[in-house]
Amino acid sequence: MRVLRQIHARLLTQSMPIASFSFGLCKIIGFCALSPHGDIDYARRLFSQIRSPNIFCWNSMIRGYSQSQTPSKEPVILFRKMVKRGYPNPNTYTMAFVLKACSIVSAMEEGQQVHASALKSGFGSSPFVETALVNFYAKCEDILLARKVFDEITDKNLVAWSTMISGYAKIGLVNEALSLFRDMQKAGVVPDEVTMVSVISACAASGALDTGRWVHAYIKKQLIETDLELSTALVNMYAKCGWIERAKEVFDAMPVKDTKAWSSMIVGLAIHGLAEDALEEFSRMEKAKVEPNHVTFIGVLSACAHSGLVSEGRRYWSSMLEFGIIPSMELYGCMVDLLCRANLVEDAYTFVQTMPIPPNPVIWRTVLVGCKRNKILDIGEIVAQRVLELEPHNAENYILLSNLYASHSEWEMMSQVRKEMKDRGIKAVPGCSSIELDGLVHEFVMGDWSHPEANEIREILRNISKRVHAVGHEPGISDVLHNMVDEEKENSLCEHSERLAIAYGLLKTKEPTVIRIVKNLRVCGDCHEVTKIISAEYRREIIVRDRVRFHKFVDGSCSCRDFW
Known about the structure:
About 65% of the residues lie in helices and about 5% in strands. It contains 29 helices and six strands. Strands 2-1-3-4-5-6 form a six-stranded mixed beta sheet, sandwiched between helices.
Protein backbone atom coordinates (compact mmCIF):
# COMPACT_ATOMS: atom_id res chain seq x y z
CA MET A 1 0.00 0.00 0.00
CA ARG A 2 2.91 2.37 0.63
CA VAL A 3 4.06 2.05 -2.99
CA LEU A 4 0.49 2.42 -4.22
CA ARG A 5 0.05 5.65 -2.27
CA GLN A 6 3.21 6.96 -3.92
CA ILE A 7 1.78 6.09 -7.35
CA HIS A 8 -1.45 7.83 -6.38
CA ALA A 9 0.49 10.94 -5.29
CA ARG A 10 2.36 10.94 -8.61
CA LEU A 11 -0.92 10.79 -10.51
CA LEU A 12 -2.16 13.84 -8.61
CA THR A 13 0.98 15.87 -9.25
CA GLN A 14 1.50 14.99 -12.94
CA SER A 15 -0.27 16.83 -15.71
CA MET A 16 -2.02 14.31 -17.96
CA PRO A 17 -5.20 13.92 -20.01
CA ILE A 18 -8.31 13.36 -17.90
CA ALA A 19 -8.89 9.96 -19.55
CA SER A 20 -5.44 8.75 -18.54
CA PHE A 21 -5.89 10.11 -15.03
CA SER A 22 -9.25 8.35 -14.64
CA PHE A 23 -7.84 5.11 -16.01
CA GLY A 24 -4.98 5.20 -13.53
CA LEU A 25 -7.32 6.00 -10.63
CA CYS A 26 -9.64 3.11 -11.55
CA LYS A 27 -6.70 0.70 -11.57
CA ILE A 28 -5.66 1.89 -8.11
CA ILE A 29 -9.23 1.44 -6.86
CA GLY A 30 -9.32 -2.06 -8.33
CA PHE A 31 -6.10 -3.06 -6.56
CA CYS A 32 -7.13 -1.52 -3.22
CA ALA A 33 -10.56 -3.17 -3.33
CA LEU A 34 -9.57 -6.63 -4.55
CA SER A 35 -6.00 -7.39 -3.55
CA PRO A 36 -5.28 -9.21 -0.26
CA HIS A 37 -2.69 -6.47 0.28
CA GLY A 38 -5.19 -3.70 -0.50
CA ASP A 39 -7.30 -1.41 1.64
CA ILE A 40 -11.06 -1.27 0.96
CA ASP A 41 -11.47 1.93 2.99
CA TYR A 42 -8.80 3.68 0.90
CA ALA A 43 -10.52 2.41 -2.23
CA ARG A 44 -13.84 3.84 -1.01
CA ARG A 45 -12.27 7.28 -0.40
CA LEU A 46 -10.86 7.36 -3.93
CA PHE A 47 -14.11 6.05 -5.38
CA SER A 48 -16.09 8.86 -3.73
CA GLN A 49 -13.80 11.45 -5.38
CA ILE A 50 -14.63 10.32 -8.92
CA ARG A 51 -17.54 12.28 -10.39
CA SER A 52 -18.66 9.53 -12.79
CA PRO A 53 -17.06 6.18 -11.94
CA ASN A 54 -17.05 3.68 -14.79
CA ILE A 55 -18.41 0.14 -14.55
CA PHE A 56 -14.96 -1.25 -13.68
CA CYS A 57 -14.83 0.95 -10.57
CA TRP A 58 -18.36 0.03 -9.49
CA ASN A 59 -17.71 -3.68 -10.00
CA SER A 60 -14.40 -3.48 -8.14
CA MET A 61 -16.05 -1.85 -5.13
CA ILE A 62 -19.02 -4.25 -5.10
CA ARG A 63 -16.75 -7.28 -5.38
CA GLY A 64 -14.26 -5.87 -2.87
CA TYR A 65 -16.90 -5.42 -0.17
CA SER A 66 -18.21 -8.96 -0.81
CA GLN A 67 -14.69 -10.29 -0.08
CA SER A 68 -14.46 -8.39 3.20
CA GLN A 69 -13.66 -10.26 6.43
CA THR A 70 -16.80 -8.66 7.91
CA PRO A 71 -19.56 -9.37 5.34
CA SER A 72 -22.32 -6.78 5.05
CA LYS A 73 -25.00 -5.55 2.65
CA GLU A 74 -22.72 -2.76 1.42
CA PRO A 75 -22.42 -4.36 -2.07
CA VAL A 76 -26.22 -4.26 -2.38
CA ILE A 77 -26.31 -0.63 -1.23
CA LEU A 78 -23.68 0.28 -3.86
CA PHE A 79 -25.62 -1.58 -6.55
CA ARG A 80 -28.80 0.34 -5.69
CA LYS A 81 -26.91 3.64 -5.85
CA MET A 82 -25.56 2.78 -9.29
CA VAL A 83 -29.01 1.82 -10.59
CA LYS A 84 -30.53 4.99 -9.14
CA ARG A 85 -27.89 7.18 -10.84
CA GLY A 86 -28.65 5.57 -14.19
CA TYR A 87 -25.00 5.45 -15.23
CA PRO A 88 -23.19 3.26 -15.94
CA ASN A 89 -25.49 0.38 -16.75
CA PRO A 90 -24.71 -2.81 -14.80
CA ASN A 91 -23.24 -5.71 -16.75
CA THR A 92 -23.19 -9.46 -16.16
CA TYR A 93 -20.21 -9.15 -13.82
CA THR A 94 -22.10 -6.62 -11.70
CA MET A 95 -25.06 -8.97 -11.33
CA ALA A 96 -22.86 -11.93 -10.45
CA PHE A 97 -20.85 -9.98 -7.85
CA VAL A 98 -23.99 -8.63 -6.15
CA LEU A 99 -25.60 -12.07 -6.11
CA LYS A 100 -22.49 -13.52 -4.52
CA ALA A 101 -22.62 -10.78 -1.86
CA CYS A 102 -26.29 -11.61 -1.18
CA SER A 103 -25.44 -15.31 -0.82
CA ILE A 104 -22.76 -14.55 1.77
CA VAL A 105 -25.14 -12.65 4.08
CA SER A 106 -28.23 -14.75 3.14
CA ALA A 107 -30.00 -11.63 1.83
CA MET A 108 -32.85 -13.53 0.17
CA GLU A 109 -35.13 -10.56 -0.58
CA GLU A 110 -32.34 -8.40 -2.01
CA GLY A 111 -31.03 -11.29 -4.09
CA GLN A 112 -34.45 -11.92 -5.61
CA GLN A 113 -34.62 -8.23 -6.52
CA VAL A 114 -31.26 -8.54 -8.28
CA HIS A 115 -32.58 -11.68 -10.03
CA ALA A 116 -35.55 -9.65 -11.32
CA SER A 117 -33.21 -6.84 -12.41
CA ALA A 118 -31.01 -9.32 -14.29
CA LEU A 119 -34.01 -10.71 -16.16
CA LYS A 120 -35.22 -7.19 -16.97
CA SER A 121 -31.78 -6.23 -18.27
CA GLY A 122 -31.58 -9.30 -20.50
CA PHE A 123 -28.80 -10.96 -18.50
CA GLY A 124 -30.87 -13.92 -17.38
CA SER A 125 -29.31 -16.26 -19.93
CA SER A 126 -25.71 -15.27 -19.16
CA PRO A 127 -23.81 -18.36 -17.89
CA PHE A 128 -22.02 -16.10 -15.41
CA VAL A 129 -25.31 -14.81 -13.98
CA GLU A 130 -27.06 -18.21 -14.12
CA THR A 131 -24.31 -19.85 -12.08
CA ALA A 132 -24.36 -16.96 -9.59
CA LEU A 133 -28.13 -17.44 -9.20
CA VAL A 134 -27.74 -21.18 -8.52
CA ASN A 135 -25.09 -20.36 -5.91
CA PHE A 136 -27.26 -17.63 -4.35
CA TYR A 137 -30.37 -19.78 -3.92
CA ALA A 138 -28.33 -22.78 -2.76
CA LYS A 139 -26.45 -20.73 -0.15
CA CYS A 140 -29.77 -19.30 1.06
CA GLU A 141 -30.95 -22.95 1.30
CA ASP A 142 -33.83 -22.53 -1.15
CA ILE A 143 -32.68 -25.66 -2.92
CA LEU A 144 -35.82 -25.99 -5.07
CA LEU A 145 -35.29 -22.57 -6.65
CA ALA A 146 -31.60 -23.33 -7.08
CA ARG A 147 -32.48 -26.54 -8.91
CA LYS A 148 -35.08 -24.71 -11.04
CA VAL A 149 -32.48 -22.19 -12.21
CA PHE A 150 -29.95 -24.99 -12.74
CA ASP A 151 -32.37 -27.02 -14.87
CA GLU A 152 -33.04 -23.95 -17.05
CA ILE A 153 -29.34 -23.58 -17.95
CA THR A 154 -29.01 -24.88 -21.51
CA ASP A 155 -25.23 -25.32 -21.53
CA LYS A 156 -24.17 -26.31 -18.03
CA ASN A 157 -20.47 -25.74 -17.38
CA LEU A 158 -18.28 -27.25 -14.64
CA VAL A 159 -18.95 -24.37 -12.24
CA ALA A 160 -22.74 -24.76 -12.56
CA TRP A 161 -22.58 -28.51 -11.85
CA SER A 162 -20.20 -28.04 -8.92
CA THR A 163 -22.33 -25.26 -7.42
CA MET A 164 -25.54 -27.32 -7.54
CA ILE A 165 -23.81 -30.40 -6.06
CA SER A 166 -22.36 -28.19 -3.31
CA GLY A 167 -25.84 -26.81 -2.58
CA TYR A 168 -27.23 -30.31 -2.03
CA ALA A 169 -24.21 -31.29 0.07
CA LYS A 170 -24.52 -28.23 2.30
CA ILE A 171 -28.01 -29.17 3.50
CA GLY A 172 -27.27 -32.88 3.78
CA LEU A 173 -29.16 -34.14 0.70
CA VAL A 174 -26.51 -36.72 -0.05
CA ASN A 175 -28.55 -38.92 -2.40
CA GLU A 176 -29.43 -35.88 -4.52
CA ALA A 177 -25.82 -34.65 -4.52
CA LEU A 178 -24.47 -38.03 -5.61
CA SER A 179 -27.22 -38.53 -8.19
CA LEU A 180 -26.37 -35.16 -9.72
CA PHE A 181 -22.69 -36.08 -9.72
CA ARG A 182 -23.53 -39.20 -11.73
CA ASP A 183 -25.61 -37.05 -14.14
CA MET A 184 -22.60 -34.77 -14.50
CA GLN A 185 -20.44 -37.72 -15.50
CA LYS A 186 -23.07 -38.89 -18.02
CA ALA A 187 -23.09 -35.37 -19.50
CA GLY A 188 -19.37 -35.72 -20.16
CA VAL A 189 -18.34 -32.89 -17.83
CA VAL A 190 -15.03 -33.70 -16.16
CA PRO A 191 -15.02 -32.75 -12.46
CA ASP A 192 -12.16 -30.93 -10.78
CA GLU A 193 -10.95 -30.82 -7.18
CA VAL A 194 -13.63 -28.22 -6.29
CA THR A 195 -16.40 -30.57 -7.44
CA MET A 196 -14.87 -33.46 -5.54
CA VAL A 197 -14.68 -31.45 -2.30
CA SER A 198 -18.47 -30.95 -2.55
CA VAL A 199 -19.11 -34.64 -3.26
CA ILE A 200 -16.81 -35.73 -0.43
CA SER A 201 -18.52 -33.23 1.91
CA ALA A 202 -21.90 -34.79 1.06
CA CYS A 203 -20.56 -38.22 1.99
CA ALA A 204 -19.18 -36.82 5.26
CA ALA A 205 -22.49 -35.20 6.19
CA SER A 206 -24.45 -38.42 5.74
CA GLY A 207 -21.81 -40.89 6.91
CA ALA A 208 -21.86 -42.57 3.48
CA LEU A 209 -18.51 -44.37 3.76
CA ASP A 210 -18.90 -46.80 0.84
CA THR A 211 -19.73 -43.95 -1.52
CA GLY A 212 -16.91 -41.85 -0.06
CA ARG A 213 -14.43 -44.67 -0.68
CA TRP A 214 -15.67 -44.99 -4.26
CA VAL A 215 -15.27 -41.23 -4.78
CA HIS A 216 -11.73 -41.37 -3.37
CA ALA A 217 -10.89 -44.18 -5.79
CA TYR A 218 -12.43 -42.14 -8.63
CA ILE A 219 -10.21 -39.17 -7.71
CA LYS A 220 -7.13 -41.38 -7.96
CA LYS A 221 -8.25 -43.04 -11.20
CA GLN A 222 -9.00 -39.71 -12.90
CA LEU A 223 -5.71 -38.23 -11.65
CA ILE A 224 -7.59 -35.29 -10.12
CA GLU A 225 -5.16 -33.11 -8.20
CA THR A 226 -5.42 -33.85 -4.49
CA ASP A 227 -4.65 -30.38 -3.23
CA LEU A 228 -4.65 -29.25 0.40
CA GLU A 229 -8.39 -28.55 0.50
CA LEU A 230 -9.37 -31.88 -1.10
CA SER A 231 -6.99 -33.84 1.17
CA THR A 232 -8.48 -32.11 4.21
CA ALA A 233 -12.00 -32.94 2.95
CA LEU A 234 -10.98 -36.61 2.68
CA VAL A 235 -9.61 -36.59 6.25
CA ASN A 236 -12.89 -35.04 7.44
CA MET A 237 -14.98 -37.52 5.43
CA TYR A 238 -13.25 -40.63 6.72
CA ALA A 239 -13.38 -39.32 10.29
CA LYS A 240 -17.10 -38.49 10.09
CA CYS A 241 -17.88 -41.80 8.40
CA GLY A 242 -16.34 -43.70 11.31
CA TRP A 243 -13.09 -44.88 9.70
CA ILE A 244 -10.69 -42.84 11.80
CA GLU A 245 -7.74 -45.10 10.94
CA ARG A 246 -8.07 -44.25 7.22
CA ALA A 247 -8.46 -40.57 8.08
CA LYS A 248 -5.14 -40.76 9.91
CA GLU A 249 -3.48 -42.47 6.94
CA VAL A 250 -4.64 -39.74 4.54
CA PHE A 251 -3.56 -37.05 6.99
CA ASP A 252 -0.10 -38.55 7.56
CA ALA A 253 0.44 -38.78 3.78
CA MET A 254 -0.21 -35.07 3.26
CA PRO A 255 3.08 -33.33 2.35
CA VAL A 256 1.82 -29.98 3.63
CA LYS A 257 -0.62 -29.48 6.49
CA ASP A 258 -2.20 -26.13 7.35
CA THR A 259 -4.25 -25.14 10.38
CA LYS A 260 -7.45 -26.45 8.81
CA ALA A 261 -5.92 -29.88 8.12
CA TRP A 262 -4.51 -30.25 11.64
CA SER A 263 -7.81 -29.08 13.13
CA SER A 264 -9.81 -31.60 11.06
CA MET A 265 -7.62 -34.45 12.31
CA ILE A 266 -7.81 -33.31 15.94
CA VAL A 267 -11.61 -32.86 15.81
CA GLY A 268 -11.95 -36.26 14.13
CA LEU A 269 -9.98 -38.01 16.85
CA ALA A 270 -11.93 -36.12 19.51
CA ILE A 271 -15.38 -37.18 18.27
CA HIS A 272 -14.14 -40.78 18.23
CA GLY A 273 -13.25 -40.45 21.90
CA LEU A 274 -9.51 -40.85 21.20
CA ALA A 275 -8.48 -38.10 23.58
CA GLU A 276 -4.84 -39.11 23.97
CA ASP A 277 -4.36 -39.29 20.20
CA ALA A 278 -6.08 -35.93 19.69
CA LEU A 279 -3.89 -34.23 22.29
CA GLU A 280 -0.79 -35.90 20.82
CA GLU A 281 -1.68 -34.47 17.40
CA PHE A 282 -2.06 -31.03 18.97
CA SER A 283 1.41 -31.42 20.44
CA ARG A 284 2.76 -32.35 16.99
CA MET A 285 0.99 -29.34 15.51
CA GLU A 286 2.74 -27.04 17.96
CA LYS A 287 6.11 -28.63 17.17
CA ALA A 288 5.43 -28.10 13.45
CA LYS A 289 5.02 -24.36 14.22
CA VAL A 290 1.47 -24.31 12.82
CA GLU A 291 -0.64 -21.80 14.69
CA PRO A 292 -3.91 -23.21 16.08
CA ASN A 293 -7.24 -21.44 15.70
CA HIS A 294 -10.57 -21.65 17.48
CA VAL A 295 -11.54 -24.85 15.59
CA THR A 296 -8.34 -26.51 16.80
CA PHE A 297 -9.24 -25.76 20.40
CA ILE A 298 -12.82 -26.92 19.86
CA GLY A 299 -11.27 -30.29 19.00
CA VAL A 300 -8.86 -30.21 21.94
CA LEU A 301 -11.53 -29.25 24.49
CA SER A 302 -13.99 -31.78 23.02
CA ALA A 303 -11.36 -34.50 23.41
CA CYS A 304 -10.98 -33.56 27.07
CA ALA A 305 -14.76 -33.48 27.53
CA HIS A 306 -15.32 -36.95 26.05
CA SER A 307 -12.71 -38.45 28.36
CA GLY A 308 -13.40 -36.50 31.56
CA LEU A 309 -10.01 -34.73 31.48
CA VAL A 310 -11.07 -31.68 33.48
CA SER A 311 -7.67 -30.44 34.69
CA GLU A 312 -6.21 -30.87 31.19
CA GLY A 313 -9.17 -29.00 29.72
CA ARG A 314 -8.64 -26.07 32.07
CA ARG A 315 -4.94 -26.01 31.15
CA TYR A 316 -5.71 -25.94 27.41
CA TRP A 317 -8.25 -23.16 27.98
CA SER A 318 -5.47 -21.06 29.54
CA SER A 319 -3.15 -22.00 26.67
CA MET A 320 -5.78 -20.88 24.17
CA LEU A 321 -6.01 -17.46 25.83
CA GLU A 322 -2.20 -17.18 25.72
CA PHE A 323 -2.37 -17.70 21.94
CA GLY A 324 -4.53 -14.58 21.83
CA ILE A 325 -7.65 -16.45 20.71
CA ILE A 326 -10.80 -14.70 21.87
CA PRO A 327 -13.21 -17.45 23.00
CA SER A 328 -16.18 -17.85 20.70
CA MET A 329 -19.61 -18.98 21.87
CA GLU A 330 -18.78 -22.50 20.69
CA LEU A 331 -15.57 -22.56 22.73
CA TYR A 332 -17.44 -21.45 25.85
CA GLY A 333 -19.89 -24.25 25.07
CA CYS A 334 -17.04 -26.79 24.96
CA MET A 335 -15.85 -25.71 28.39
CA VAL A 336 -19.35 -25.91 29.85
CA ASP A 337 -19.80 -29.35 28.27
CA LEU A 338 -16.49 -30.50 29.79
CA LEU A 339 -17.60 -29.48 33.28
CA CYS A 340 -21.12 -30.90 32.96
CA ARG A 341 -19.90 -34.27 31.66
CA ALA A 342 -17.62 -34.50 34.68
CA ASN A 343 -20.70 -33.87 36.86
CA LEU A 344 -19.33 -30.46 37.94
CA VAL A 345 -22.67 -28.81 37.22
CA GLU A 346 -22.31 -26.12 39.90
CA ASP A 347 -18.90 -25.15 38.44
CA ALA A 348 -20.42 -25.05 34.97
CA TYR A 349 -23.27 -22.83 36.20
CA THR A 350 -20.80 -20.43 37.83
CA PHE A 351 -18.67 -20.41 34.64
CA VAL A 352 -21.72 -19.50 32.53
CA GLN A 353 -22.70 -16.70 34.89
CA THR A 354 -19.24 -15.14 34.56
CA MET A 355 -19.11 -15.26 30.74
CA PRO A 356 -18.36 -11.83 29.20
CA ILE A 357 -20.92 -12.49 26.45
CA PRO A 358 -24.56 -13.50 26.94
CA PRO A 359 -24.80 -17.33 26.84
CA ASN A 360 -26.78 -18.72 23.92
CA PRO A 361 -29.52 -21.37 24.25
CA VAL A 362 -27.08 -24.22 23.50
CA ILE A 363 -24.93 -23.36 26.51
CA TRP A 364 -27.91 -23.04 28.87
CA ARG A 365 -29.29 -26.32 27.50
CA THR A 366 -25.96 -28.07 28.17
CA VAL A 367 -26.23 -27.02 31.82
CA LEU A 368 -29.85 -28.20 31.89
CA VAL A 369 -28.76 -31.62 30.56
CA GLY A 370 -26.20 -31.74 33.37
CA CYS A 371 -28.89 -30.89 35.91
CA LYS A 372 -31.15 -33.62 34.54
CA ARG A 373 -28.37 -36.21 34.59
CA ASN A 374 -27.42 -35.31 38.18
CA LYS A 375 -31.02 -34.65 39.29
CA ILE A 376 -30.24 -31.07 40.42
CA LEU A 377 -33.68 -29.48 40.55
CA ASP A 378 -32.98 -26.00 41.98
CA ILE A 379 -30.36 -24.94 39.41
CA GLY A 380 -32.25 -26.84 36.71
CA GLU A 381 -35.40 -24.76 37.16
CA ILE A 382 -33.44 -21.49 36.95
CA VAL A 383 -31.57 -22.64 33.84
CA ALA A 384 -34.78 -23.92 32.22
CA GLN A 385 -36.38 -20.51 32.68
CA ARG A 386 -33.42 -18.86 30.92
CA VAL A 387 -33.39 -21.25 27.98
CA LEU A 388 -37.18 -21.07 27.54
CA GLU A 389 -36.96 -17.27 27.43
CA LEU A 390 -34.44 -17.55 24.60
CA GLU A 391 -36.08 -20.46 22.76
CA PRO A 392 -39.77 -20.70 23.70
CA HIS A 393 -40.57 -22.91 20.69
CA ASN A 394 -37.82 -25.52 20.99
CA ALA A 395 -39.35 -28.83 22.06
CA GLU A 396 -36.07 -30.14 23.48
CA ASN A 397 -36.10 -27.51 26.25
CA TYR A 398 -39.56 -28.59 27.45
CA ILE A 399 -38.65 -32.28 27.26
CA LEU A 400 -35.51 -31.77 29.35
CA LEU A 401 -37.42 -29.85 32.02
CA SER A 402 -40.23 -32.40 31.95
CA ASN A 403 -37.74 -35.25 32.37
CA LEU A 404 -36.00 -33.38 35.19
CA TYR A 405 -39.32 -33.15 37.07
CA ALA A 406 -40.05 -36.80 36.28
CA SER A 407 -36.69 -37.89 37.72
CA HIS A 408 -37.81 -36.27 41.00
CA SER A 409 -41.29 -37.83 40.70
CA GLU A 410 -42.75 -34.33 40.37
CA TRP A 411 -45.55 -35.66 38.18
CA GLU A 412 -47.79 -32.61 38.50
CA MET A 413 -45.02 -30.22 37.42
CA MET A 414 -44.09 -32.62 34.61
CA SER A 415 -47.70 -32.60 33.40
CA GLN A 416 -47.80 -28.79 33.46
CA VAL A 417 -44.71 -28.61 31.24
CA ARG A 418 -46.16 -31.18 28.84
CA LYS A 419 -49.47 -29.28 28.77
CA GLU A 420 -47.73 -25.98 28.00
CA MET A 421 -45.85 -27.70 25.22
CA LYS A 422 -49.08 -29.09 23.79
CA ASP A 423 -50.98 -25.79 24.14
CA ARG A 424 -48.23 -23.99 22.21
CA GLY A 425 -48.38 -26.63 19.47
CA ILE A 426 -44.73 -27.57 19.98
CA LYS A 427 -43.74 -31.00 18.76
CA ALA A 428 -40.53 -32.89 19.52
CA VAL A 429 -38.00 -33.48 16.76
CA PRO A 430 -38.29 -37.21 16.04
CA GLY A 431 -35.23 -39.40 16.24
CA CYS A 432 -33.90 -40.14 12.76
CA SER A 433 -31.17 -42.64 11.87
CA SER A 434 -29.66 -43.54 8.52
CA ILE A 435 -27.64 -46.40 7.11
CA GLU A 436 -25.89 -46.55 3.73
CA LEU A 437 -26.27 -49.74 1.68
CA ASP A 438 -25.13 -50.20 -1.91
CA GLY A 439 -24.59 -46.47 -2.39
CA LEU A 440 -28.05 -45.48 -1.16
CA VAL A 441 -28.80 -43.86 2.20
CA HIS A 442 -31.86 -45.35 3.97
CA GLU A 443 -33.50 -43.22 6.67
CA PHE A 444 -35.56 -44.45 9.62
CA VAL A 445 -37.70 -42.32 11.93
CA MET A 446 -38.79 -43.43 15.40
CA GLY A 447 -42.05 -45.36 15.19
CA ASP A 448 -42.27 -45.01 11.40
CA TRP A 449 -43.07 -48.28 9.67
CA SER A 450 -43.43 -46.98 6.12
CA HIS A 451 -40.27 -48.71 4.87
CA PRO A 452 -41.07 -51.26 2.09
CA GLU A 453 -39.35 -54.00 4.12
CA ALA A 454 -41.07 -53.08 7.40
CA ASN A 455 -42.32 -56.62 8.08
CA GLU A 456 -38.83 -58.09 7.75
CA ILE A 457 -37.44 -55.36 10.02
CA ARG A 458 -40.11 -56.18 12.65
CA GLU A 459 -39.07 -59.82 12.55
CA ILE A 460 -35.41 -58.91 13.12
CA LEU A 461 -36.42 -56.65 16.03
CA ARG A 462 -38.42 -59.47 17.61
CA ASN A 463 -35.39 -61.72 17.34
CA ILE A 464 -33.19 -59.01 18.87
CA SER A 465 -35.63 -58.56 21.73
CA LYS A 466 -35.62 -62.31 22.54
CA ARG A 467 -31.84 -62.55 22.51
CA VAL A 468 -31.38 -59.37 24.54
CA HIS A 469 -33.84 -60.57 27.19
CA ALA A 470 -32.18 -63.99 27.23
CA VAL A 471 -28.90 -62.51 28.45
CA GLY A 472 -30.72 -60.80 31.32
CA HIS A 473 -31.08 -57.23 30.04
CA GLU A 474 -33.76 -55.19 31.80
CA PRO A 475 -35.05 -52.32 29.60
CA GLY A 476 -33.99 -48.90 30.90
CA ILE A 477 -37.50 -47.54 30.95
CA SER A 478 -36.30 -44.46 32.84
CA ASP A 479 -35.17 -43.25 29.39
CA VAL A 480 -38.86 -42.97 28.54
CA LEU A 481 -40.19 -40.72 31.27
CA HIS A 482 -43.70 -40.42 29.91
CA ASN A 483 -46.76 -41.18 31.97
CA MET A 484 -47.32 -44.66 30.51
CA VAL A 485 -47.17 -48.23 31.72
CA ASP A 486 -43.85 -50.11 31.66
CA GLU A 487 -44.83 -52.34 28.71
CA GLU A 488 -45.61 -49.28 26.59
CA LYS A 489 -42.28 -47.73 27.59
CA GLU A 490 -40.44 -50.88 26.55
CA ASN A 491 -42.22 -50.96 23.18
CA SER A 492 -41.37 -47.29 22.67
CA LEU A 493 -37.68 -48.02 23.25
CA CYS A 494 -37.77 -50.84 20.67
CA GLU A 495 -38.96 -48.38 18.03
CA HIS A 496 -36.09 -45.91 18.47
CA SER A 497 -34.70 -45.02 15.05
CA GLU A 498 -31.20 -46.46 15.60
CA ARG A 499 -32.71 -49.85 16.43
CA LEU A 500 -34.68 -49.80 13.18
CA ALA A 501 -31.51 -48.92 11.26
CA ILE A 502 -29.43 -51.58 13.02
CA ALA A 503 -32.15 -54.18 12.35
CA TYR A 504 -32.10 -53.22 8.67
CA GLY A 505 -28.31 -53.54 8.66
CA LEU A 506 -28.59 -57.05 10.14
CA LEU A 507 -31.24 -57.92 7.57
CA LYS A 508 -29.29 -56.76 4.52
CA THR A 509 -25.66 -57.55 5.41
CA LYS A 510 -23.66 -60.44 6.77
CA GLU A 511 -20.65 -60.57 9.04
CA PRO A 512 -17.94 -59.30 8.99
CA THR A 513 -19.53 -56.25 7.33
CA VAL A 514 -19.49 -53.29 9.73
CA ILE A 515 -22.91 -51.72 10.39
CA ARG A 516 -22.59 -47.92 10.32
CA ILE A 517 -25.41 -45.73 11.63
CA VAL A 518 -25.82 -41.95 11.73
CA LYS A 519 -28.36 -40.50 14.20
CA ASN A 520 -29.58 -36.91 14.54
CA LEU A 521 -30.01 -37.10 18.34
CA ARG A 522 -27.96 -38.39 21.26
CA VAL A 523 -28.19 -42.16 21.76
CA CYS A 524 -30.29 -43.00 24.82
CA GLY A 525 -28.92 -45.16 27.63
CA ASP A 526 -31.04 -48.20 26.87
CA CYS A 527 -30.23 -48.23 23.15
CA HIS A 528 -26.56 -47.94 24.10
CA GLU A 529 -26.79 -51.03 26.32
CA VAL A 530 -28.82 -52.98 23.77
CA THR A 531 -26.38 -52.16 20.95
CA LYS A 532 -23.52 -53.50 23.08
CA ILE A 533 -25.43 -56.77 23.49
CA ILE A 534 -26.27 -56.95 19.76
CA SER A 535 -22.58 -56.54 18.88
CA ALA A 536 -21.77 -59.57 21.04
CA GLU A 537 -24.79 -61.76 20.22
CA TYR A 538 -24.62 -61.22 16.45
CA ARG A 539 -20.81 -60.91 16.36
CA ARG A 540 -21.05 -57.64 14.44
CA GLU A 541 -19.08 -54.44 14.72
CA ILE A 542 -21.52 -51.51 14.93
CA ILE A 543 -20.45 -47.89 14.63
CA VAL A 544 -22.99 -45.22 15.59
CA ARG A 545 -22.44 -41.52 14.99
CA ASP A 546 -24.91 -39.59 17.13
CA ARG A 547 -25.24 -35.84 17.59
CA VAL A 548 -22.35 -35.79 20.05
CA ARG A 549 -19.74 -38.39 19.09
CA PHE A 550 -18.95 -41.83 17.69
CA HIS A 551 -19.67 -45.12 19.48
CA LYS A 552 -17.83 -48.22 18.28
CA PHE A 553 -19.50 -51.39 19.56
CA VAL A 554 -17.42 -54.58 19.47
CA ASP A 555 -17.92 -57.83 21.44
CA GLY A 556 -20.29 -56.26 23.96
CA SER A 557 -18.21 -53.14 24.68
CA CYS A 558 -18.29 -49.55 23.46
CA SER A 559 -15.34 -47.31 22.66
CA CYS A 560 -16.83 -44.57 24.87
CA ARG A 561 -16.38 -46.82 27.94
CA ASP A 562 -19.90 -45.77 28.95
CA PHE A 563 -18.80 -42.14 29.33
CA TRP A 564 -20.59 -39.94 26.85
